[in-house]
Amino acid sequence: MTRRPINWPLWSAFLMSLIAFISYPFVFVRFPITRDFPWVNLLLLGLSAALLLAGLRRSFRAEATRKSKIAGAVVASLTGVVCAFFVFVFFIFSRQLPASHGAPQVGQKAPEFRLADSDGKMVSLSERLSSPIAGKAPKGVLLVFYRGYW
């Protein structure tokens, strides 16, 4: 009895799709370049699709056994489910999140506040709007909110 080699492209495709799905919330969400649009994960899913096609061709060739064809179909289905779930969660479901009605809108005047700056000095919005910069009164203030701490 001869032992048939494992269909590595098919199993690699499944593993790659799992890595693409799991790596976004645990790794790539930390970096702004990959958080806003999961392009690295889409590249990993594309690589997974290419490996899946190669593995399916190998599973369904003429001399393949019935067991190989069934395993190929099952692994391909699981890979497809993982890819579809990634697209649903990160592109469709995320759009269903409710809008923040209490958040300021673009162009809306910010309420007066007093906060510590990066040096620990207390600063208010009215101070920043009235203090001249390079001899000119500022036309506006850019507010940048950082998540986390300094």
Report on this model:
- With 150 residues, the protein is mainly alpha-helical.
- It has a domain of 89 residues.
- 51% of the residues lie in helices and 4% in strands.
- The protein has five helices and two strands; from the N terminus they run ααααββα.
- It has a two-stranded antiparallel sheet with strand order 1-2.
- The longest helix is centred in the middle third of the chain and has 27 residues.
- It is rod-shaped.
- The model has no long low-confidence stretch (mean pLDDT 85).
Give the helices and strands, then pairings.
Blueprint: H1 8-26, H2 32-35, H3 39-59, H4 66-92, E1 114-116, E2 122-124, H5 125-130
Antiparallel strand pairs: 1-2
Helix pairs in contact: 1-3, 1-4, 3-4
Labels describing this entry:
mainly alpha; 150 residues; 2 strands; two-stranded antiparallel sheet
